[in-house]
């Protein structure tokens, strides 16, 4: 006669099933690739800007960890590939490495160490560098651009140049450099870049001229549907915008206006939209010196919203 299994035997069988399930083929033991291209640039006497090229993983990279001589000083999500490290000492040498992390907790090997020395403090320096001029850009395929500009001047010295895409800083280079390569862009997208110079006292220059670059569309996608040639001008109590609507199979009757990244108003024309350049005057009540970031998108004849235009910055008079 066959005896029924004892409780202890059932527990053992359950444990074996759990172990089999946990140790199956889905277990992730592969670490991400090591972050490459790590740079460290002193932004001031007490801060350093660290950035790197993104890693890859067989599943997905979920974050990065930044170390200063073996001590972790920052933990970042996978969407970030740069960080400012503050609270440092002036005239001091530092060394930074970066490691990538995945969802299973696997860490990549540390990147090669990157050394940097913070400059001497300049506590009485309140004068900003001059703005960079003659900013130019060229496309490097569909996902990168190279920017160049003329040097700024400062009463002490320029320690770094910060590259902005719209209102977000996306890159920094040493004050001795006048070129930057920005990667990780999306095909078929309009990007607007400006550059600011910074000194050791964290004084930032005004923006350089803006450069608009549109990355080529991916295979199978149509041309950009963004408004082009956007200009802004400020008068007392108003801001005037002009632009060229996108070329489509039908007339463009409606645009959306965004201020500082948020929807502001809808611009609607009647049965006959303006031919060629479009103009819109916006009444403003904010005090002089208020800064606006402005961009537009058009409602296409098929009812869908098109791509955003390049962004423009205007200061209220």
Write the SSE topology.
Layout: H1 7-22, E1 36-44, E2 47-53, E3 61-68, E4 71-77, E5 82-85, E6 93-102, E7 114-117, E8 133-139, E9 145-150, E10 158-165, E11 168-174, E12 179-182, E13 190-199, E14 211-214, E15 228-235, E16 238-244, E17 254-259, E18 262-268, E19 278-283, E20 291-298, E21 312-315
Antiparallel strand pairs: 1-2, 2-5, 3-4, 3-6, 6-7, 8-9, 9-12, 10-11, 10-13, 13-14, 15-16, 16-19, 17-18, 17-20, 20-21
Summarize the structure.
Helix content is 5%, strand content 44%.
Task: Give an overview of the whole structure.
The protein is mainly β and 317 residues long. The chain has one helix at 7-22, and strands spanning 36-44, 47-53, 61-68, 71-77, 82-85, 93-102, 114-117, 133-139, 145-150, 158-165, 168-174, 179-182, 190-199, 211-214, 228-235, 238-244, 254-259, 262-268, 278-283, 291-298, 312-315. The strands form six sheets. A four-stranded antiparallel β-sheet has the order 4-3-6-7, with no helix packed on it. The chain has a four-stranded antiparallel β-sheet with strand order 11-10-13-14, with no helix packed on it. It has a four-stranded antiparallel β-sheet with strand order 18-17-20-21, with no helix packed on it. β8 and β9 form a beta hairpin. 27% of the residues are buried. The model is unreliable at 9-23 (pLDDT under 50).
């Amino acid at each position: 006669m066959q005896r029924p299994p004892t409780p202890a035997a059932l527990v053992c069988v359950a444990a074996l099933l759990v172990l089999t399930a946990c140790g199956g083929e889905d277990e992730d033991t592969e670490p991400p690739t090591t972050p490459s291209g790590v740079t460290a640039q002193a932004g001031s006497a007490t801060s350093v800007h660290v950035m790197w090229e993104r890693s890859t993983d067989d599943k997905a990279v979920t974050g990065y960890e930044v170390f200063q001589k073996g001590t972790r000083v920052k933990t970042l999500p996978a969407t970030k590939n740069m960080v400012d490290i503050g609270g440092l000492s002036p005239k001091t040498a530092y060394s930074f490495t970066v490691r990538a992390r995945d969802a299973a907790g696997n860490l990549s090997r540390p990147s090669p160490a990157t050394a940097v020395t913070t400059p001497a403090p300049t506590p009485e320096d309140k004068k900003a560098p001059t703005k960079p001029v003659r900013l130019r850009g060229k496309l490097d395929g569909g996902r990168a651009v190279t920017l160049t500009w003329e040097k700024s001047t400062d009463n002490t010295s320029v320690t770094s140049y910060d590259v902005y895409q719209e209102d977000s800083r996306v890159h920094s280079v040493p004050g001795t450099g006048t070129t930057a390569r920005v990667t990780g862009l999306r095909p078929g997208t309009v990007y607007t870049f400006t550059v600011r110079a910074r000194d050791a006292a964290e004084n930032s220059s005004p923006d350089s001229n803006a450069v608009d670059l549109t990355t080529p569309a991916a295979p199978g996608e149509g041309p950009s549907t963004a408004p082009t040639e956007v200009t802004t001008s400020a008068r007392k109590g108003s801001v005037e915008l002009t632009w060229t609507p996108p070329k489509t199979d039908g007339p463009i009757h409606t645009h959306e206006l965004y201020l500082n990244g948020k929807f502001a108003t809808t611009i609607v024309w009647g049965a006959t939209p303006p031919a060629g350049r479009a103009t819109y005057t916006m009444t403003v009540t904010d005090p002089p010196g208020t800064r606006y970031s402005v961009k537009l998108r058009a409602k296409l004849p098929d009812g869908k919203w098109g791509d955003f235009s390049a962004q423009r910055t205007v200061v209220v008079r």
